[in-house]
Amino acid sequence: MEKPFKVRFAPSPTGPFHIGGARSALFNWLLARHKKGTFLVRIEDTDLARSTKESEENIKSALQWLGMNWDEGIDVGGENGPYRQTERLEIYQNEIERLLSEDKAYYCYCSAEELEKSRNEQLKEGKTPIYDGHCSHLTVEEAQAYEKEGRKPVIRLRVPTEGTFAFDDMVRGHVEFQCAGVGDFIIMKSDHIPVYNFAVVVDDAYMKITHVIRAEEHLSNTPRQIAIYQALGYDIPVFGHISLILGSDHKKMSKRHGATSVDEYKKMGYLPDAIVNYLALLGWSPKGEQEIFSREELIEQFSMKRVSANDAVFDIEKLNWINFQYMKKLSPEELLELTLPFIVHAGYISLPLSKEKEDWLKEVVWYLRERLYYGSQVVEQIKMFFEELPPLTDDAYIEILKQETSKQFISAFAERLEQLDTFDEVAVKNCFTELMKEIGIKGKAAFEPVRLALTGETHGPGLYTMIALFGKEKTIHLLKQSLL
Ligand code: GLU
């Protein structure tokens, strides 16, 4: 009988949650949901020096924020726990002892210097260095002598020297590694902490993982892991190694390319649904031209068959475009909720807001929405509602404002506005269009100078709405200022 479909995400909590990790998690999550299987999350914290609780929290909260809920694992529990590797040391120890008793693994007392020497000799002979097998058949006496010297042994796996480790990768097709190139490798260090390759295999086997989908960087670990599966006698899962994420210059994505952690995108006010949508397209190509996918659509359509083995290039412009599509779906209330923290942080307003101020701000943010690809951009856009307008520097713009027709229109417009009792969009518009007719100037000749006087730019979203939102006092002040 086929085993129930089960995948996992197994991050090492050694730093901020990288966008590449989020994509691995997402592919697993989507498949689990698509196949109505189980998505498990466990923490691989055997690198004691680099693992932190803070990073674990960061990963968990990012997964939650992205809406990738898990069915089994840390926090939620399950029947195959514990789900943190440092809490599973006894399990690994038992498996190691089993291998030792079956003579599938052995103690190795070689020192770092001895290993280095053997390595160099092999290199000199033009060979790919592997463990030379020095301790593979020690007698009890030899082992005791080493113990007496105070050497602390590691444990190595006996690896076949002939044949291949072969598997059919979901992304890369048939992959083969020569056994002879692997060598007897360490499975447990002298501090009794198993190495990643060992712990990961034991966990995947105990946790009944059927498909291992992870980053390409682990492809070269797979032959070792297969050797461990074979030695332990467990079923080998199906592997799928997804490509690297590269920056725009086709080099491995790093800080140089901008934000690399999920947290940074969250802090910039990106929307989780948009990130999920974008990450899904990073390596997976859907059938048609569609680019905006709801979660339900992704779950329905996602398949490893359409995941490319080529490197994926992180394209911030595309992420921004996708995020923009999701921003457009927000209600005025949601848009305010997203942008408010940035506005507060910029010092433009302080909380709590009066009802009146909240309503005004909601309208302002709504008005700006066409210029917001993501939340934090609100600060730049909303500036004009709170700050003095800097003097114009562009000569062409200065020239427009100097023209007699511009001055005439601006000053007459300011006077008209002054007389308005109700200062709303309709009233402002009437005022403006009537004046155009009276003075006899058309479109651009009226709009450009007024916009320049108010914003320092010649283009932007609805002028009348903006004026209404500026209010009488600010508008008249800016118009008059431009005449000086
Ligand atoms: N803990 C490994 C990592 O964060 C993942 C290992 C795996 O998926 O097999 O890179």
Structure in words:
With 484 residues, this protein is mostly helical. Helices cover 47% and strands 10% of the residues. The protein contains 20 helices and 12 strands. The strands form 5 sheets. A 3-stranded parallel beta sheet has the order 1-2-3. Bound molecules: glutamic acid.
Quick structural gist:
By secondary structure, the chain is mainly alpha-helical. The chain has helices at 19-34, 53-65, 89-101, 112-124, 140-148, 196-206, 222-232, 262-267, 272-280, 295-301, 316-327, 332-345, 355-368, 378-386, 395-402, 404-419, 425-439, 443-455, 463-470, 472-483, and strands at residues 6-9, 38-41, 72-73, 105-108, 154-157, 164-169, 173-178, 186-188, 211-215, 238-242, 245-246, 312-313. It is 47% helix and 10% strand.
